[in-house]
Structures are given as C-alpha cells and as structure tokens.
Amino acid sequence: MTRHSAVPAPSRFRFTDALRTAWLNVSARPQRTALASLGVALGIASLTALTGAAASNQAQLLAELDRMGANLAVVAPALGPDKLVVPLPDTAPQTVQRVDGVADVGVFETAPDDIPVYRNDLVPATEAGGIEVAVARPDVFDAIEARLAAGRWFDEATRGLPVTVLGRTAADRLGIVSPGDRVWIGGQWYGVLGILESAGLATQIDTAAILGDRWVRNTFEGPNTGEISTMYVRAESGQIGAIADTLASAASPGSPFVNVSVLSELADARTTTDDALRTLGVALAAIALLIGAVGIANTMVVTVLERRGEIGLRRSLGARPVHIALQFVTEAAALALVGGLAGVALGAGAAAVLAAIAGQPLVIPLAIVVASPAIAVVVGATAGLYPALRAARLSPTLALRAV
Amino acid sequence: MTSAVETLSVIDAPPVIEVREVTKTFPGTPPATALHPTSLRIGAGDQLAVVGASGSGKSTLLSILGTLDAPTTGAVLVDGMDLAGMREAERSAIRASRISFVFQQFHLMAPLTAIDNVATGLLYTGLSSTQRRERAALALETVGLGHRLQHRPGELSGGEQQRVAIARALVREPAVLFADEPTGALDSTTGEAIIALLTEISDAGTAVVIVTHDGGIANRFGRRIRLKDGRVTDDDRGAAR
What ipTM was estimated for this complex? Predict the structure, then answer.
C-alpha cells in the first residue's frame, strides 16, 4: 500500500470564493449589514453631498459670474508717447478672435465727440444725465452675452438707421419704458430700438445710448470715426486668466500701446468658495468614515466571537490562518462597500435636493462617484484587519466546543 | 501502560495517524495536565471509539490526533511525517487532504443549502465551485440525502443536519474521519442511524474515530479506548457490539 510520502499541495482559498463567502454573510443578515455600514454610508454620503454641492455651486457661480462679465476682458487702444491715442489695427478683432480660449469679440467704435443724450428737445442742455453715446458693431451683443429687456438689437438694416439701443441705467434715467419712444441725441431724434438688461460688470454699457456703427460712419465726420474704441473679449468658461496676457499682442502685434483689463477679479473668488466647501466635505467625510471604520471594526469583532465555531470548522477543513484573515477582511470590505454604494446614492440625492432648493444645476463629480466605493473598500478592509487577525489566531479546536 | 497500547496494536497496514507519547499540559498554577503520555496508531479502515467522562481528556486527545492542536510533548505523525517540524500552512494542507471532522453542533452554515454546505468541505482544496458541487451532490447521495440538496439547515431535521455534516466530511475523501459526540444533539433513534452510517463509512475504508461518553455507542466500534483523568485505562479490541 503506497503512502503519501510528501506534504500534500498547500490548501488554497480562491479570491472569488472569499468574495462569495463575504457576500453570503453580508446578505444573510441585512440588519447587521445596515447597522454596521451606516457610518461608512454617512461618511461617503457627506463626501458626495458636499462635493456635489460644491460642484453645483461652482457650476452656478461660474454661469452667474460669466453672465455678469467675469469672463470678459476689455481691450482698448492706449495713449502713445505723444499723448495721442494709438489706434488698434482694423484687423484686431480677427486676430484676437483666433486666440485659443476666446469665445467672442465685440467691437465698439469711437463715438463722435460731444453728442449729448436727452429725453427730448426741451430738456436743458445742462441736464445730460451722464449718458454716454457708444457706437456698436452688431457683434457686441453676442460678445457681452447681452439680454434684451425689450425690443431688438441692431441688425443689417437698423445699424444704418437713426435708432438707438439703451443700456438699462440709461433707459431708467431717460424714463424710457418701451421701444418705439424717441430720444434726442446730438440734436436729432432717434427711435429707441431696444433696451438691454443690466450688463453686470460691463457697467459702461448700462449707462450708454448705443448707436449703429454704419449710421455713425455715414452721418458723422471725424478723424477717429470708425476706429476701434474698445473690444469686449469674452473668454470661454474659466479661460479668462489664460488669455488675458496674450490679448494685447494679439490685438496689436508688437505695439506696447494696448490696454487690457479683465472686468473682474471675481474670477478668483469662485475657486476659493468652492475650495472651502470641498474642504468641509472632506473633513466631514473623514470624521464620519473614521466613525464608520470603528463601527465596522466593532461589528467584525463581535462577528468573529459569534463565529468561533465556524472559524474552527474552516480550520478543520484545511483553511490556513491567512485564509481566515482574508475571509474576514473581505467581509469587512464588503460591509463597507455596501455602505459606500448606499452613501453615494444618499449623497447624490442630498446634493440633488440642495441643488433644487438653491436653483442650481446639479453636478456630481464623476471622480467622487468612482472613488467613493474604492475609499469605502479601503476603509472597510483597514477596519477589518484587526478583527481578522484575531480570527486568524483563534485555535482550530474551537470547533470542538459548544458555542 | 502506554507500552500495553503499543503491544495491542496489531494492525499491519502503516498507520495514517500515529501519536507517540503525546501529552498536553495547559499553563497555569499549577499547570493542568489534560493528557498523560499516550501512544496510538490509526490505520486505514480502523474503527476507534474514545470513551470517557467529561473532563477525561478525550477531546484533547481528539484535537491532537486530528492535528487541530499540537501536543505539549511527544510526536504526531501523519502518513509517517512528523508534524513537529512543519509550518502551519503544511499542517493545514495535511488536514485539508487527509482528515475530516464531524462535530456535535454540526457547524452548518444557515444561509447555505445542503449541497453548498457540503461543497464547503472542498473550499480550501483549489477545486472549482462546479467541481465542488458535483462531488457534494454525490456525497449527499451517499448519506441518503440525495433528495434534500437544495434545503437549508433550518428546513432539515437534526439527524438530517448531521448527515449533511457527515457528507461535508466525506466529500473530502479523508483517510480519517473524527466525530466528536456526533449524536450528542440527537435523540437516540436518530443517533442510532448516524452511528450506523459512521460504521458503514469505516467499512468502506475510511478510518473512523468517534469520541463519546456513551458506552453503548462505543460498543458498536471495533476498538474502544477508555480515558480517565488524561490516562488510557482500558484498550479493548473485542468484537464490536
């Protein structure tokens, strides 16, 4: 009779079996699973909710600031050494438009000198009301993302007619409430074509009576007529900082006599706000996850005590201590994964509610959705390590005792 | 006394498990000796009943024979290999391939069906889950539960649960099956059937070692060792029954 002359092949525990065993124990006792994974669920939920709230907030803030003109730069000719304006080349709008990150360019032309704006021809000349005349090419409307309170903007026909589009403040000061009224500009009647909504940070537009470029060129004689007075350059979202430095040379290559101003430093404010929210999210999540980890560790310690018989049985079936440890670490990770997935759903729901209440677009960063279950698994496995090692150290003879 | 055990050992086949002068002492003041020097050989197809009162050291002897516990002194040999110099992984490998247990409490896993409980017996062998379930089904046939494959422990009687546990032990095709008070949680009629099943198993070539406090059950086995206060007081090779 032949005998085994060598130690048999080492016992094995397939990882898929470890996963299956873990899932079996997690799913067999839903109440325990729910309680044990609650902390991790709350941790991941707060992480997801606050990161989502920050992202939603940022999305709204970005949209808002962009609408207010935070993504606008103003390019204007500067004075030369002789104290005379050095005009921008006529090609400046085209060259600026080609800069990467520039969404749109709108051009104001130099307005004729000394044409005051009045409600009608009876207003004393001294009560001009601080309303400036501006001369816009039609592309200004899109460049500053203007919105009309009433009426229309210039088109191919009306840019050559004696009509005006009033800025919000200008309309208020003149007492104009609807298009079709007339105003007295430079000693001549102009029909009101439209009234703009407030242009936000582009305050000069709010106080302007805007005339069509073709009308001005055909009507007024002047040395500077038709020259570019200012260009409003709208950057693509978030690109304003990147393009600001290149605008001057794009507008007038080689010339130092170009002014570029970014309409607001508010562009920076949005990042600080959201960093604060995100930091809060991470801090809350860290605390909740720590509590969650303690919860899972506690559950697993109890589980190991409860299942001493099973551990003994498994050892009697040939499981090595490392197999026992693997089983309990996997189970702890599975508990945490359940919590993590529930937390993502919970957090996304909370972020959705917050966004709905605040009227913000809902944004949940994909990275958080992907990372959360992974974070949960790491937290769970770490929390399960100590109980698992205790389980691995238990004697196989436990199976022989009444439990 | 231990030499008497040796001389009585007349089995010709090389032993599957052999213990030489093993003792077990638990630390404390004074240290408690659970097992005094004992030698024993278990060969293929042997039937052995270890009888003794509670605290007689029979569970300690079973743990050492079954490689669940290491003796304080003395040697344990499985297939002629001394376990003393082995790492835990090697001892686990030997346990996985040569030794099975049946426990008083069955130790079935409540969420698992009968067939999956039995397949657990092969969990650490490296076999695929399909292979494990195929062999589990056969083992359940062997113990007369071919019609209960998909039942969970809660849906089975005590006797049926212990049969599932025996199938889980048998599915590994062990050289030795240890049964620790296998009828302790069963009524006498059901227990009788379990004992009959265990003796059938030994007839098929698997050594069966049963630990019991019940002399009546012990008498059904070919060889009976009586333990008292950690010493073998009687080694009876008289005919079973």
Answer: 0.88
